[in-house]
Amino acid sequence: MDPAVALIRTALNTTASVAPGLAGRAAFALYRHPLRRSRVRTREREVHARAVTRTIRHRGAPVVVHRWGDGARPVLLMHGWQSRASRFADLVPRLRALGLSAVGYDAPGHGDSGGRTATVLDHRALALRLQEEYGAFEAVVAHSMGANAAFLALREGLEARRLVAVAGVAGISWLPAAFCARAGLNATVERELTRLAESGAMFPGVADVRAHFDATRDPGQIGLPILVAHDEDDDVVPFTEARRLRAAYGERLELLVTRGLGHRRILTEPTVLDNVIGFLSAGTATATARAVDAPGTATAVDAG
User: Fold this and answer.
1) Are residue 64 and residue 202 in the same domain, yes or no?
2) How far are the Cα atoms of 80, 112, 278 from residue 199, in angstroms, in the given order?
3) 247 shares a domain with 152
4) Domain check: are 147 and 244 in the same one?
């Protein structure tokens, strides 16, 4: 175990017994801020270097925007927590081969952008800001927490023809508990962290955090075809999140189930990317569910 993580765990758990509010606030500070910035990986460098990059301002911080292509027929790429736009490097050439442009960003506190952190609201705001420049998107492709932001943005004015959610977060109510479990924090810290995470301290002006950021809420508000790809062995975002989305959106949502890819490799697996490109290029969505063993091909399974 990382010595720093062990030290934090011991300190917060001990503090919680005498000052639970203080321990909760300390955990909340860690919960809100990425502990590290992701770097461009070796396999991503060539594609990353081909992007046209520029900087915009968001909440006073410089945010780096990446574009592959001339901007015509844009596809918006929305990354997840502690991630960056370069994570879509394996998908970008496939989008370009379809005549699509790819537009992504490094959220505040992530990648090459400034700032310290970004919530779902920041991702939503950046998506809407980029729409002002590029117009309606051919599609949105989102990973992990970015998927939750994509559903929120689509409810609040983002226009796209299709949505792809890879290892997506459907709701955020389980995140404090997952954070505490990974860090080894006790029930007292978890209770205080949950209280703060669902209060105005993190989302000013949002009265009911659980409902507001639940992607399954009012599915009729989002009428576009949806592809959800999720691995049964995802150790970050539970597979039950994909099942919740499927149950909510029914026949409008195609569920691609993978095995053995986990939370991150699913975004680079060729078989998964082939399915994403097929979905984006199709004239109509098919309401099926499929399973993928890595490496392997898709086969029909019960959508259930």
Assistant:
1) no
2) 22, 29, 41
3) yes
4) yes
| Enclosing domain of residue 256 | 49-172+224-301
Coil, strand or helix: which one is 203? coil
The residue assigned the tokens 């063993």 is 293
Maximum C-alpha span of the chain: 61
CB under 8 Å to 42, separation ≥6 — which residues?
Answer: none
Claim to verify: residue 242 and residue 165 sit in the same structural domain: yes
What residues have CB less than 8 Å from 193, skipping those under 6 apart?
24, 27, 28, 31, 176, 179, 180, 185
Instruction: Note whether 153 and 207 are same-domain residues.
Output: no
Q: Which residues pair with 77 in a beta bridge?
A: 104, 141
Q: CA nearest 256: which of 193, 301, 210? A: 301
Residues 165 and 245 in one domain: yes
- Could you tell me if 141 and 63 lie in one domain? yes
For the chain, 304 residues long, give each residue's pLDDT as a single digit of tens.
566 678 888 999 999 999 999 999 999 998 988 778 899 999 999 999 999 999 999 999 999 999 999 999 999 999 999 999 999 999 999 999 999 999 999 999 999 999 998 999 999 999 999 999 999 999 999 999 999 999 999 999 999 999 999 999 999 999 999 999 988 999 999 999 999 998 888 888 888 999 999 999 999 999 999 999 999 999 999 999 999 999 999 999 999 999 999 999 999 999 999 999 999 998 433 444 555 655 443 433 333 3
State pTM to two decimals.
Answer: 0.90
Asked if 115 and 186 sit in the same domain, the reply is: no
User: Could you tell me if residue 42 is inside a domain?
Assistant: no
> Which residues, other chains included, contact 102 with Cβ-Cβ below 8 Å and sequence gap of 6+?
66, 67, 68, 69, 74, 75, 77, 88, 91, 92, 95, 96
Residue 243 lies in a domain: yes
